[in-house]
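Submission sheet (multi-component)
Chains listed below:
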Amino acid sequence: MIIRIGLGSCGIAAGGLEVWDAIQKVLDEQAMDIQMKKTGCAGMCHYEPLMDVLHDGRQYSYVNLNPAAAAEIVSSLGEGHLPENKYLLSIKDIDKDIDSDLFSGQVRIALRNCGRIDPEAIEDYIDSGGYQSLRRVLLDMTAAECLEEIKTSGLRGRGGAGFPTWFKWKATRDAIDDIKYVVCNADEGDPGAFMDRSLLEGDPHSIIEGLAIAGYAIGAGQGIIYVRAEYPLAVKRLELAIEQARQKSYLGNNIFGSDFSFDLQIKKGAGAFVCGEETALLASLQGERGMPHLKPPFPSEHGYWGHPTSINNVETLANIPWIIQNGGQAFAAVGSDQSKGTKVFALAGKIKYGGLVEVPMGMPLRDIIYDLGGGIRGDGAFKAVQLGGPSGGCIPASLLDTPVDYESITSTGAIMGSGGMVVMDESSCMVDLARFFLDFTQKESCGKCVQCRLGTKRMLEILERICAGQGRKGDIERLESIALHVKESSLCGLGQSAPNPVLTTLKYFRDEYEAHIYEQTCPAHQCKALIHYTIDPEKCKGCGLCARACPVECISGERKKPFVIDQSRCTRCGTCVDICPDKWNAVQVD
Amino acid sequence: MTCICQDEHSMEQHFFQDDVDLSLLHEILVRNRSEAGNLITILQETQDLYGYLPLSALRYIADKLDMKRSKVYGVATFYTQFRLQPVGKHLILLCQGTACHVNGADRIKTALCDELKIHIGETTDDGMFTLMEAACLGCCSLAPVMMINGQAYGPLTPDGARKVIRSLNTEQEQREGVET
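Outcome: structure written.
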């Protein structure tokens, strides 16, 4: 019998460590001989803390646990009894979870080990076929054959732009230099995206193996992982994994007795969104301010310290060992015409089941949101889905049947991006959302290009004005004109894509902008300057809950008589709406 | 408007003045100086050491690495991870990710600022709390989230956030009570 507890960042945040301790205590007290394993994120973040009990060829998944409940379940395991209580989500045959209900529609290639193996134990990774792909390329394949296999697979970079991986590798391989580098870009900066974090925390060895294979294919002896300092657990597990791989000689000199030598080092980023752009990333690796430079020369010719460098995203690298093991054809068989394989998405926002999903390319957005994500949380109706973070855009309900592949998503005005998918219901204001993203890109602009530095600032000012109810005639046109300039005259991806949230919301939700400017209303009731809270005298029972809760004490009245809000002092914080019992619902927003 | 670079002393006004033991930096520099381009790593370790980047430490690093002070200062101010001011006992990172935003992070911010009587980026007078925003903490399924001393709290309500602060305050008072 084996017990697995999800201890990725999300599991720990939800209280996974307390559950772990409680189970450990029971096992110690009752001297039970049950193996405990910590795993990374299985993708079902909404079910954390989560425990899998593997027994008799079957897997029992207990979800949304608390320490007491976990202790109770484990206590009864001693008698070989697996309680079927409210925490039990599913029972399934081990190793069939791709077909099971929970993962139906998903195809797990990049996430194949996440939530199944202990990321801190290299043996677990080896037992599931790990490092066999590296062995195979080193002993049975030439670098050219390895490249050909990746070309057959049709794998495209998962960081956002979707550039063919083999092409990038080949360019670095063909560059003439004795020293070459391969870099893993783990500077996952999109707010709302956490695929890379989960991969690094849940299956660090697959990234290491992917990097080593890339090193062999392009002729690099040194690899660097550039990882966000905000992901301390990922850094810790990577450090441990690299040390273990060195001890087993999967890193170091003459790996598997071949003449290929390869080693890795970790460099921690210091919090700059622009460092996801490859030339800015290189500047940061060299200890400079993370500012991009003009391409060409491309990093594949002139990269880290001037040497040819191939920069690959975490998810791209996680796919590599699988492709070598199963063949490029098998990978190409999944997905759509132009976009092969799978893509991991981080589902968040107003969604019922938030977490990670890995789906074949080409699956319609509707299926991801409704079938895998369970649809909208609460009673709201779907309004839009935001793809690609601050560089991406909003896709409205009318385009829900768009398949997720690079070309189709780009044609909507959004971008595939790294895979953040934030779902919004009708309570989200699209103007406010555009303001939110511009606030982000404006802060993160490195300041090198004038159009980006000043353009994002000016756009933000206009958006702030519109949200504050001071929009003017011509603001929409001004936004469009500045957006175009920023897009066309910025050097790097940050500036070129910064206007996307504004342009897509203008394209699909122009009426909301107009309502803000010309009618002084916020249809979603989000922009504070444009809403009013009033108490409906018909519905108010005069309980006084709202008056006591109001932080600025602007609600007054006598008990058992309708209360009144003093509009001149109301800060529109919304506390009164929250506290008024649902059965009365006396506070109105308009 | 005058340029502050003209007078180095006027620059000092932007820093928290603190005498720190610079000899502690020696080991960090020895360990990292062999490799070019390690300035960010050195600054990260310096911040781990002091809790922030003191001006005297930045000067020391620049002199020892034979770099222009402006370059060290430029890197230290470019990246959001680096702080030029000391932080309170509890560092509150309020997540500003998209998922948190659509789930009402703004109202959590208002509640926290009101409870602590400070603005974003400030420290309470008693030195207990510093309130900062983080781009995204990556626990989107718990949105809205804040992280205090590395521990995530979520999903939050404005009231729930106030309660977390109060319980940390009570904990501290009890600890002080035991000590005296």
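Remark: The mean pLDDT of chain B is 87.
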